[in-house]
Amino acid sequence: QVQPVESGGGLVQAGGSLRLSCAASGRTFSSNTMGWFRQAPGKEREFVATISWNGGRTLYADSVKGRFTISRDNTKNAVYLQMNSLKPEDTAVYYCAASPSPSISRNYNSYAFRGQGTQVTVAS
């Protein structure tokens, strides 16, 4: 079992950068697919990015491709989301999630273990 805990959110000006971290407890972290999702006020939760257990495969939402980078460090049980060129529409609560399946997925329901989220606010 993996328990993700997000950190690194905050307030940033449009065009700025933030790096989100997700520390995940559990001995099986290195075998889990990890994903980032977000939910803006009044909107449904949406997929942001995912990374396979060894970092060999990544997938991004079209809205963040080229601006966000997902990475992981299995020696630290951590996954990261580097967010550059932030836009006001990136404002949301960002969630980290873990899936024991080796298949990367955009579907939040595929991720059995979810964090509580961290707020990212991008001011225009």
Report the radius of gyration as a whole number of Å: 13 Å
Question: Which structural category fits the helices and strands?
Answer: mainly beta
**Overall pLDDT:** 96
Biggest sheet details: 7 strands, mixed
User: What would the principal axes of the Cα set say about the shape?
Assistant: globular
Distance between the amino and carboxyl termini: 40 Å
Architecture overview:
With 124 residues, the chain is mostly beta strands. It has strands at 3-7, 10-13, 18-25, 33-39, 46-51, 58-60, 68-73, 78-83, 92-99, 113-114, 118-123. Strands 2, 4, 5, 6, 9, 10 and 11 form a 7-stranded mixed beta sheet that branches. A hairpin with a 4-residue loop joins strand 7 and strand 8.
Secondary structure: elements and pairs:
Layout: E1 3-7, E2 10-13, E3 18-25, E4 33-39, E5 46-51, E6 58-60, E7 68-73, E8 78-83, E9 92-99, E10 113-114, E11 118-123
Parallel strand pairs: 2-11
Antiparallel strand pairs: 1-3, 3-8, 4-5, 4-9, 5-6, 7-8, 9-10, 9-11
Briefly summarize what is shown.
The protein is mainly beta. The chain has strands spanning 3-7, 10-13, 18-25, 33-39, 46-51, 58-60, 68-73, 78-83, 92-99, 113-114, 118-123.
Task: Considering the chains and any ligands shown, give keywords for the structure.
single chain, 124 residues, mainly beta, seven-stranded mixed beta sheet, four-stranded antiparallel beta sheet, 11 strands, 0% helix, globular
